[in-house]
Amino acid sequence: MDADERKQFALHDLKDVLRALEELGFPCTLIGGQAVYCWAGLFLSGDVALQQFAKLTDFLSKDIDFQGTAQAAKAIARKLGCRAEVPGLRQAFGNLMAGKLRVVVAGVPLSIEILRKVPGFEVRNFSRYAVREEVGDVVVQLLDPVGMLMAKSWNVVNISKEGRRDTEQLFIMVACVRGYLRLLLVQARLSEIPIRGFLSTMERVLIFSESAAGRKAAEKCSIDWQHILPCEIENASEPELLALREKRLPRWRLKIKRHRLGPPQNPLHRRMLGILAETARP
Q1: Residues of the chain with pLDDT under 50
Q2: Alpha helices in the chain (DSSP H)
Q3: Quick check: helix, strand or coil at residue 29?
Q4: What's the distance, CA 270 to chain centroid?
Q5: pLDDT by residue (tens digit) across 215-249?
């Protein structure tokens, strides 16, 4: 079967794979398109932008990707009753792939790839940004929304391959990060997390979007990073949030204003960007 003709899977189709990782104690972290759609599903019910995106494009992927080690790839293969292809010592040097395996889901082959690191999100302590979320009756460990935003930004700038959906997925992650920031803000206001938890995540978003990597992604995909901010910040009265709004954000806006954004050529991308702009308003 040609790669372009392979079945596309929803995340709930892959419960057996995800449950195996849960039972193994989460040796890997979900990344890639399935992680994008996992976050989209978690925020969908309360996010108008994601609801509109779901009418324009499906939340499906042909495979599933994880970050992990060769040892993790072998452990998953044993658990699923298949064989892992692991690069030898010579092949491993400079190779992102830690292991690859194939399983059958509903009679259809599924490719599982485990990467040693995530391009665009190469940090020393990757596990610090891995979070666990309940998806139906299974717990999934996946890269947090800001990390996924950075990873997808790297993809749209550096990977050109027909059939890839990185740009669509990046737009979805903009909405997801906005929803994530909104959630953290609500939790901080309810004293469920310290306000610095929200502020540190917000700062990660601001630093990335004003960086060279953020600029390249914005210019490649015509993203106005201002649309990633939850509108609730505009009426914040807490001292820490006032400082964010009145001091940090004006400096940030000056920096991202230098990004040269052209009109998107793809009609779907143009519509998705319009939805992000419309739903960013109070």
Answers
A1: 1-3, 92-93
A2: 15-23, 32-43, 48-56, 70-80, 89-92, 145-158, 166-189, 195-210, 212-221, 239-243, 249-256, 267-279
A3: strand
A4: 20
A5: 999 999 999 999 999 999 988 889 999 999 999 99
